[in-house]
Amino acid sequence: MKNIRIVTEGQSETNFVNRVIVPYFAGRCTLIPITVVTKTDNRHGKTYKGGVGNYGQIRNTLVKTLANASKNKDSYVTTMFDFY
Q1: What is the Cα 2 distance to its own chain's centre?
Q2: Which of 84, 80, 9 lies closest to 50 in space, CA to CA?
Q3: CA angle in degrees (0–180, nearest 5) for 27-24-7
Q4: How far apart are CA 47 and CA 27, in angstroms?
Q5: 65-82: per-residue pLDDT in tens?
Q6: Domain map of the chain by residue range?
Q7: Distance (Å, rounded) from C-alpha 80 to C-alpha 69?
Q8: Among the four 1, 21, 61, 78, which has the fewest Cβ within 10 Å?
Q9: Alpha carbon separation from 59 to 19, 23, 25, 44 (Å, rounded)
Q10: For residues 72 and 1, is the Cβ–Cβ distance under 8 A?
């Protein structure tokens, strides 16, 4: 079964994937939403996601997602961002 990783901008896009797209593709493939990491606080061990401020934040998450997907031949990566 194919795995499709969907890099999302924030919680709204992740909710849309889980509520609308996942049920539509049920049984045909596995959809995995991944929200962009916008800030990492190493001092307190916290990771913040959503509310993208620049392309660098998107790029970091995409590079990690693509690296993980490349380990599996049946994995694909796409994105879901709104234009506001």
Answers
A1: 16
A2: 9
A3: 95
A4: 32
A5: 999 888 887 889 999 988
A6: 2-80
A7: 17
A8: 1
A9: 26, 28, 27, 24
A10: no
